[in-house]
Amino acid sequence: MDAGREGMADDLLAFIPNVSVNIDNPRYGMLLHQCVSRIPKSGIPIQLETRIRLKSKGSLPGVVGLTTFLVEGYSSRGSKRGAIGLHTVTFYTRLLSQLSDKAVMAVMAHELAHAWLNEHIRPEASKRREEDADLLAEMWGFEPELRALSEETEPLIAD
Ligand SMILES: [Zn+2]
Q: How far is the CA of 78 from the centre of ligand 1 (A)?
């Protein structure tokens, strides 16, 4: 799936209205849609521009997914520009391919939780962020998936 906005499920657009998805592998495209469709609709959506993409491998061994968050605010000629926010959520398929569907969905929920927390709660660089992301994913209902993930992986897998 390499989607503009066409063909993107309503669930995905409801939760992340400004999303662009670059997932050309049907397995992960389907799992992403399943994952997002389970996130409770009552929550505040991720408003900022969000890129979701697949890469075959990352530079850090054991990392299955990574969410980066960029906010820029700058002034030009004295006029203050508004903050520009961008999330990039990257999934590394070499490692994801070793996981069950359930565990992959846990990784996706965890990374989306990072994006949500980065946007709505002050981002802090600490282990606490990992716990917060797992906690939010759990609140979204992904406790069984998170359990499957921890059963299938070594503690090495992070972020
Ligand atoms: Zn994380």
A: 38
> In the chain, where are the structural domains located?
2-152
> For the structural domain made of 2-152, what CATH number should be given?
3.40.390
Q: Ligand 1 centroid vs 34 CA: distance in angstroms?
A: 20
Ligand 1: distance of its center to the CA of 28 in Å? 18
Residues 6 or more apart in contact with residue 58 via CB below 8 angstroms: 66, 90, 92
Question: For residue 106, how far is its CA from the centre of ligand 1 (angstroms)?
Answer: 11
81 CA from centroid of ligand 1 (Å):
30
Separation of 147 CA from ligand 1 center, angstroms? 15
Among 106, 112, 87, CA closest to 20: 87
Enter the pTM of the model.
Answer: 0.84
CA angle 68/38/119 to nearest 5° reads 30
pLDDT tens for each residue of 47-101: 999 999 999 987 777 789 999 888 765 545 545 455 578 999 999 999 899 999 9
